Amino acid sequence: MPDIREPLQRFAVFICPVLSGSGVRVKLLEAFASGIPAVSTIVGAEGLAKVSGDVCELADSAGNFAASVLRLLSNPGYSLEMARRAKQMVERERDSRHATKRLESLYRSEVHRSRIRTSPEIVAPSVQNVESTIRFS
């Protein structure tokens, strides 16, 4: 599918009831990027969310999970605000364009620092500069 955001827009809440495994949950990131409020287990949101209600609801028991889904469905203002924070987090921290810009900036900075450290004036001062600094008697 070329763009997952279009079909995700039809849903009011994204659920991620993952109970085991590791790694970043790409589907949860897609929901965040699509602006869909989400409920996940702590394992399902590993590496993405630590606090319930920040970028998604976190719930590990069936009862808490259901209550979180109902809270999102019955409180659209809360749901939209949480989904907005999640989308901003994805754009800020997970968007490859931003990561590429930060990496490029880091590389440019390191190249600049390297050139300064290895410039001929610093690494191997000219004889003339040394003679003018040291007075021979």
Question: Any descriptors?
Answer:
137 residues, mainly alpha, Rossmann fold, three-stranded parallel β-sheet, 7 helices, 3 strands
Task: Please give a quick description of this structure.
With 137 residues, the protein is mostly helical. The chain is 57% helix and 6% strand. The chain has a domain at 5-94: Rossmann fold (3-Layer(aba) Sandwich), CATH 3.40.50.
Describe the structure.
With 137 residues, the chain is mainly alpha-helical. It has a domain at 5-94: Rossmann fold, CATH 3.40.50.2000. It contains seven helices and three strands. It has helices spanning 5-8, 26-34, 62-74, 76-94, 96-117, 120-123, 127-133; strands at 14-16, 38-40, 57-58. Strands 1-2-3 form a three-stranded parallel β-sheet, with helices on both faces. Helix 2 links the parallel strand 1 and strand 2. Helix 2 crosses helix 4 (76-94). The longest helix has 22 residues, at 96-117. The protein is elongated, with a radius of gyration of 26 Å.
